[in-house]
Automatic annotation (TrEMBL), chain A:
Coiled coil: none annotated. The keyword Signal applies. InterPro entries: Ferric-bd, SBP. SUPFAM superfamilies: Periplasmic binding protein-like II. Residues 1-24 form the signal peptide. Keywords: Periplasm, Signal. This is Iron(III) transport system substrate-binding protein.
UniProtKB/TrEMBL annotation, chain B:
The keyword Calcium does not apply. This is Iron(III) transport system permease protein. GO terms for cellular component: plasma membrane. It comes from Roseibium suaedae. The keyword S-adenosyl-L-methionine does not apply. Signal peptide: none annotated.
Amino acid sequence: MSRYLALAAAAMGAAMLVPATASAADLVVYTSHGETTSSPILDAFKQAHPDINVTIVRGGTGEVVERLRAEAGNPTADVLWGGPTQTFEENAALFQAYESATDADMVTVDPNHIWHPYTVLLQPIIVSTKRVSADDMPKTQDDLVTAKWKELGSLIIPDPAKSGTGYTILSALSGDKGWEFVGNLAKDARIAPGSDDAFNAVRDGEAAVGWINEDLGAKWKAEGLPIEVIYPSDAVTGQVDAQAIVAGAPHLDEAKAFIDFLGSKASHEVVRDATIRRSARADVTPPTVLPELGSLNIVSPVDPRPVVVARFQEFLSK
Amino acid sequence: MRVWRDNWLLFTIVALVLCVATILLPQLRLLSASVIGDGGSFSMVHRGSGLEPVPEMSDQFQTEAVDKGNALKVTRGGGFALDISRMDRQTLRLSAAERIGTTDDGNGHLSLQLGGSSLAVTQQAPRGLFNRTAPDPLSASQEPDGSVVLKHAANAYLTFNDPGTRLTISNYIDFVTGNETVKATLNSLFISLSATLIAALIGVSLAYVVARFDVMGTNGIVFFATMASVSPPFLGAYSWRLLLGRNGVITNGLGVDFSIVGIHGVIWVIAWLVFPVIFLLSYSAFRGLDASHVEAAESLGANPAKARFSVEIPLAMPGIITGLYLATMAALSDFGTPRIIGLDLNVLPVLIYTSFLSEAGRNPALAATGSVVLVAISSLFLMAQQIYLAKRGFSVVSSRAIDRRPLSTTGQICALGFAGLVLFFAFVPHMTVLVTSFMEWRVGLPRFAFTLSNYTNMLESGLTPAWVTLSLGIAGTAVAFALGLGIAFVLVRKRYAVLAPVLSVTVMMPYVIPGTVLGIGLIMMFNEAPLQLTGTWFILALAYVIRNLPFTVKASEAALRQVHPALDEAAISLGARPLRVFLTVTAPLMLAGAVTGATLTFLHIVTELSSTIVLYRPPWKPMTAVIFENTLVDADFGVSAAQTILLMMIIYVPLYLVVRYGQSRRIENA
């Protein structure tokens, strides 16, 4: 038996050694961006800073934040790249302030310099053309409150308790149109356990109508999928995607260089062209397929998350 | 001391301590998390329109408007009373019968001391998307009369939170009165029972046909059913959705308005997932029948149908019931299927997972309560099974194996057609993934164009998940196998008073703990120094070992019972020490039986999803987690399809070898 135990101990010991070698890299970035978004930027960063070796750890926003929280005492990560600004504000203790020279070039800024804006992401309406005919297309958020959606396959709402995007949409709409409006929306709606589930449900026609992150909507539309993307004329919800330096980052100078690089005009142009996202820099023009910000009434979250979650829960149990 | 002289006693104690620390304590931790509530909180919002209470965010404290829009009174049992009135748009006055203390640690953490308790004050102010200024910070100043003046940001929500804890059953009350939680529980019960019922109809009838009639290719049918019994748990849901979803390949091709997404799809997919275990156990139960019983029935004048329902099925019932129990448990704890194909359908494992770990709000108390409820339900199922088996406590001494009845050509065709149809449905997912792994994927949907790029991409993007899976599979199997062997030896041969029975019960506990619950328990237990294992490779290995221990212990016990103790005694009488006897005599003799158990353990580990999805943190991400997540997001599944094929090879090659090896052994013995 002791032989087995020794073997097991050796196997475990070997496994524990591996993360130690991983942290020897020059810069560790946790990111929720997918391969297509991140790799052009990382290639450009490699050219600008050939001396810095970047290790990427990928995961959903919830996962990587959870991991940062677990590691708070002894962090391995230097930068969290990706996630709405609310995530950074709710977990401000996990990050440290850094006043990047590029912060001043952005359309919005964190006065505390914890997060550094990256892209602006709107949530237009997505409609399944498999379920909805051209005559029935909604034009405004108000159009989403009618009984006809239930017959056509329902409105799908990402649960604000489980999805940051769901929270952004409902908090912004309730701030703009009041809670009664959200209550009417929820009446016949289906509730998805995450934003990706809600997006995909409309793409596949499992649900008739919902909201979508505009970059994904534009991509799907270009691929000829059976969907329509509509910017409602009364109000469009939006959030800002950001990055921040982790509190106690082991490679602070490299992290600062990375943040400065992510804020640069060159990097923002790469992102815009690779992903159809609006840059948060004031001097980078938006992707041509997306409508001008000035033509839209942008609304953003008002009520904090616990209020939105609790009120929404109350509507559902009615 | 005896402990130092008896290696096995030492081993028993160490094993017991380890099992208690890794199995029992995490569950107790979960239980305690479900009965501990926080000290309560209350909130208010102060806008231009006035000061209003926010009852949705208040717990245990009562807030009532004294002067609507201008003043509030906050009370709590035990004499706590606080008056809050507005001074101007961003200033409030807090006063009480006694003096209110304030502390400010300079980092924006502000708290009030009042009536023996401390209240942490936080604010949340709305911020326009393109706003460039910070909300005004929160600050408190003490007034000479003992009241406090609180300055805050414009339009802020203010929350006062008592960080204390207390014992409460309110989590359970919320659970049984909450709409969502009750629905999730009922859905879970309905899905697991109806899926098991469908699986039983398919599995038991196929088992009967194959066991009692001379069907061609019986070995092949059994082998394919064994293969189906270890397929990755998320495979079915994803493939069926791809074929029969609203935008599915078949539904689009036929132009029908149908979707498998929903509760009917979950039941359908889970039924095909769990039918192999019912088939395999029923098959061996029917094969184990003694010929003389059936002959006796027939000689007493029973026709075949009567003999079937009054003799054969009742005698095979213990095996069938065990199969049903295992199937119900698998259906009840399945996380992947409802998550992929359920859309807005809530079931307990998904509810537990999403309330424990989600992008947005977390609710660990709800996760803990749900976990306790799920473990209670599965324990009830186990009790029902045990009571049934105890009542029917007979065993058949099979002296003469029953002969298979010959079949007419029509009968042969019918039997083969039935078996073929069942196996076809069971392998639809595998075939779908195989085909789509050679197809071009764009924006999450396959296109009809042949390509090898999925495989080349898989090789380029790195095989890290495959190595994580393999290393966990091998290490986990080795440890579970070694521990299982040792524990089984202690339980069968040593039978220490108190220690052995306690060890036996503890080791079997994971049998009723669903993977999601096990994972959450381990996180709660091992999230703090000096035992901080969360996010490492090691915690995954630990979870897999624990989850498979009941099976390795049972398999080793069965193998051990076949090795006669006289052989041990012979070795001891020749002067060998106990450990040496075990390693050189007992272990080699039981090895053949145990290899099969170890293989199954390996297969369970590499296909494990429900605990993996809770426990893994990048970069320690096994293949199951990678593939599963790609089914949920708008990722191109092509590479994941290729990875699934690789995973199937990791599963089916060892399985094939074991079946071959096992069969040739049987022939040698015969």
